Amino acid sequence: MNIKEIVSQMTLEEKAGMCSGLDFWHTKPVERLGVPAVMVSDGPHGLRKQSDEADHLGINDSITAVCFPAACATACTFDRELMHEMGVTLGKECQAENVSVLLGPAVNIKRSPLCGRNFEYLSEDPFLAGELSASYINGVQSQNVGTSIKHFAANNQEHERMAGSSEMDERTLREIYLPSFETAVKKAQPWTVMCSYNRINGIFASENKKLLNDILKEEWGFEGFVMSDWGAVSDRVAGVIAGLELEMPGSNGVNDKEIVKAVQTGIMEEGVLDKAVERILNIVFRFVENRKMEVFDREADHKKAVEIAKQCIVLLKNDGILPLKEQEENVAFIGGFAAKPRYQGGGSSHINSYKVPSTVEMAAKYGTIKYAEGFSAVEDKVDEALLAEAVETAKHATKVVVFAGLPDLFESEGYDRTHMNLPECQNRLIEEILKVQKNVIVVLHNGSPVALPWADRVTAIVEAYLGGEGIAEAIADTLYGKANPSGKLAESFPLRIEDTPSYLNFPGTGKKVFYREGVFVGYRYYDTKKMDVLFPFGYGLSYTSFELSNFAVSKKNIRESETLTVSADVTNTGAMAGKEVVQLYVRDNTGAAVRPEKELKGFEAVSLQPGETKTVSMELDKRAFAWYNEEINDWYAATGDYTILVGNSSRNILFEETIRFESETELPFEVTKDTMIGEIVNHPKLEEYVKKNLLPLAASLTQNTDESWAAMMEAMLKYLPIRSLRSFDNVSNELMNKAVEEMNELLK
Questions:
Q1: Where are the alpha helices (DSSP H) in 572-632?
Q2: Which fold has domain 546-662?
Q3: Is 229 a catalytic residue?
Q4: Does the N terminus or the C terminus of the chain have fewer Cβ atoms within 10 A?
Q5: Looking at domain 12-288, does it have CATH number 3.20.20.300?
Q6: pLDDT, tens only, 637-648
């Protein structure tokens, strides 16, 4: 298909029309040139496609589809292969339903546990989010269906999301809020990128040239087109110029006319519009020319959703009570979520699910379960009669499983949470049950961290997150040991909201939110501060045991252009098949910048049979050691020592090895009279000159028989600017200026 030829035959009005949606879900056709309309659909964990008879405003119910686990759950697998497989399944569903682009994945960083949309986002860690999203995108797009990675960028709250500005420095943006997008673009090339609603440092994402063109397209090499989030456009012409190709869902022609007018009056060159249309048509025809027949087998895909959900579950605590024994008598299931599991979040990703069995129903195959509702699954309201019934049931049971969590109204797109607490009715019931029963297991249904005031008194905690429509079967199989929990937390669980790094700056005021915690997000903050947390990043238990051994690095010294290979053996030393996640972190010991105590730079999910051993290998390049240096506007790793740390959570490091990194990048440096002596005394190009010519001029400062005085003055010398030497030994301006000139010559 000759796209440029098609564009050359379009009228100005047709070109402008291609840059906005026909309706809520379709692009515009140009029938006379054979350009069809194609459909996009909400995702990313299921197909929220409206039927052909729907209202096209995105309000009415969508078709029946399969709801896979939400990102808060799938991220806990740390499993690239699983994410790819889920993507392949969703891609086939899209082909079956003639959907060209699935709107997802969502990779915004979980800056605060209170963000209402955290259940859709993968992690607090950009490396993990980037790697998993790239695998998911490659899976979907292997079926010739596009994805739309979102929300680009720094959309970390729902409060004032369509008007507010995320205010941060360049380093924070580059190290925390952009890498998940960067990795996905470079490793998977999503067909589209969806820009966010918010401003970034005062400029709307939808008209942010630095973001959409300079970084995304020029620097990262993005080849697809950028679409707006629904209703995110402010100035449409500014958006086209900045790199926003498609406005969704369109503006009933209003903005199309603005585009035409801008070209006619010379505000925008027609060539800019042509390039935008070309990018859109490339994707439209990529889908159209690769259509294939697929059958949306909902039953088969439901089974896949169950298997994926089993691998998402995180076992947070187990005092030997799990797994339950089959046909064990007097087991009680308590809580409204046992009969009606909360398995997905609210908002644009809400799936009209194929079928959602209850955990009570799914556990029946393992024995007789006594069920008491105890509290509602939809509201925070104490029903004294239900509470009394539940406590009485618990009193006469041998083991009690309480199904707790957040009702739909507690977390959803559109608004943020105001606290981390579970509904009070649930906490009260758990406290009452603990008074009459010591064998209490709690299963959690939630999309983000919650406070657990009773965590130290229950015998087991199972984090099911929002595990999709198959979560009931997954939980039942996990409770009874037919599935081995293997998930690891993709976010930290703080003890309380006041401990979180963004607490004083979330959600902001006056349409601004300042990211003053900088790069210290999640475990980067907690581990650096050595703060207690409820459960750390990367943490998760198993019904079996694992041993790591034979840890090795390929070399002890590497140059910037080289890579380092880190390997270790993992053995399943228990009696049950399971999966371990080996995690690799890097610590910068150079002191060249203020950095977190450690940062995740590698991970591998390893499935093992009892007694089986596998070797994992992870490769680190310059980027694994680097931080974003605003002075050179690039990634920089200083020469010096770095520690490689390997373990199975950020708080359980099993092996450490320090290596030497040699930088091949020279930072710009100029000596002036205000340069401190400490800045130049150890500079490789200046060290000899300084010791020979400058330090003798200040010798009188440190030549004192009083050791404490000499030590103090030696320390002070580091912070003395060169100009201060004029005060000692009659150093003239001429001599000082000559020294500055000579040092700058040496730096050339």
A1: 622-625
A2: Immunoglobulin-like (2.60.40)
A3: yes
A4: C
A5: yes
A6: 999 999 999 999
